[in-house]
Amino acid sequence: MSWGLRPDSARVPGEWPTEDFGLKTETEFEIRVSVKEGAGWLFGCGSVAQVTTSEEKKGQYLSINLGFAFGVTFGIFVSRGVSGAHLNPAVSLSLCVLGRHPWMKLPFYVFFQLLGAFLAAATVALQYYDAIRAYSGGELTVTGPRATAGIFCTYPSDYLSVWGGVVDQVIGTAALLLCVLALGDRRNTTLPDGLQPVLVGAVVLVIGISMGSNSGYALNPARDFGPRLFTYIAGWGADVFRAGGGWWWVPIVAPCVGALLGTLIYQLMIEVHHTPVMAELQSCQEATEGKSGVELEGVEPKKNTT
After folding, report:
1. What global pTM score does this model have?
2. Rounded to 5 degrees, what are φ and ψ at 92?
3. Are the C-beta atoms of residues 112 and 33 closer than 8 Å to each other?
4. How many whole angstroms separate alpha carbon 210 and alpha carbon 225?
5. What is the DSSP letter of 233?
6. Best label site of 9, 64, 97, 148, fewest CB within 10 Å?
7. Tell me: the pLDDT tens digits for 182-229?
8. Nearest Cα to 154, choosing from 230, 259, 260, 225?
9. How far apart are CA 236 and CA 290, in angstroms?
């Protein structure tokens, strides 16, 4: 199972499926795949840009929730057939811990997920360049009534402490992983393949509606740090790392902790209670028979002395 909910049987574990997609090298495969995984954030950041620069005349908070939800949905549809569409380093980390994704590939996925989110932010900034300048009066600020850095990455509400933000992100990401693992668990429920990405988007939507006011529900280190790095380079400056009491590390660390917590809860509360499927029973039976055959090999049968 993966974020893209592609069956594990579709690919040999550890195999690079470069030949199926006309890609000559593993590096070329990773670059194309992981940048595609960042495509979903284009719609999310774009929805924030539209709501912010129009001063909520062309959308409200729900518009942002829908933008990210459908962005995740279509991001999965775009890239799941090649990479599994993790979209999120915290998801990739959890799958590695579960043994469903090779640890060797984790740094590649994380790097290019960050790159994809960075490029998505750059695209939104280019598309809304005039609107952002007009809205902010030509000043690119991180805080204040005309701040625009929040279009691209998350910042805490004024009342939220850093540790309150950590708790917020841990809970939100744990809920995300709990739901995503349930949707991809064929022994828990069977869903049509085309419906699964839509339901993952619905999970993002409901988290945004119910858990988004504290700090913008990043839930994803790449979705937050990639655009934050872009704003640092593009003119918003070092304030993107200083704002919120040094908030920038929270959406990196806390989602990873939350993802592992959600994975642990699902494993302990749900997955370990599944009854073994027939294939597993058959495999165990074959292993037992094979072991018995080895143990009996070389033992001569008793002769009948009567």
Report:
1. 0.80
2. -60, -40
3. yes
4. 23
5. I
6. 9
7. 998 888 878 888 898 999 999 999 999 999 999 999 999 999 999 999
8. 225
9. 65
